């Protein structure tokens, strides 16, 4: 489940790849409903009274700034996201821990590949 600035929770399915978190409305969807580039973001566990097993993506360097992301509206238009944080609730504590671990690993790999590509350019 994912919840943003408006405190409604929507069921979503996520795929983590290429330093982006893609989310889908249905498991059968071919195209993502939204894309959250993970560059410059951090992740933390959070307590959420209405949902268990929560974590959120946020920008540690620009508190209060909208996260660069996009989503597809029901009419097919692609618009910029308007979330300061993306709060996600996993089905179980184990899945929450696995998501956090995987996203942190993704951060590390991306940072490492940036260094390698930067060093190669010098």
From TrEMBL:
Q: What range(s) does the PH domain occupy? A: 1-108
Recorded hits in SMART domains, A to Z, give: PH
- A Pfam family (short name) is PH
- Return the InterPro entries for the record: PH-like_dom_sf, PH_domain, PI-Interact_SigTrans_Reg
Give the source's domain of life in one word.
Answer: Eukaryota
Query: What is the protein name given in its UniProt record?
Result: Cytohesin-3-like
């Amino acid at each position: 489940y994912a919840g943003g600035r408006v405190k409604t929770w929507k069921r979503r399915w996520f795929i983590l790849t290429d330093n982006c978190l893609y989310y889908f409305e249905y498991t059968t969807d071919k195209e993502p409903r939204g894309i959250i580039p993970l560059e410059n973001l951090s992740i933390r566990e959070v307590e959420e009274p209405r949902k268990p097993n929560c974590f959120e993506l946020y920008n540690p360097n620009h508190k209060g700034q909208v996260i660069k992301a996009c989503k597809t509206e029901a009419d097919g238009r692609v618009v910029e996201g308007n979330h300061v944080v993306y709060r996600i609730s996993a089905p179980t504590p184990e899945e929450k821990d696995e998501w956090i671990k995987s996203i942190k690993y993704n951060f590390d790999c991306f940072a490492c590949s940036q260094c390698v590509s930067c060093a190669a350019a010098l």
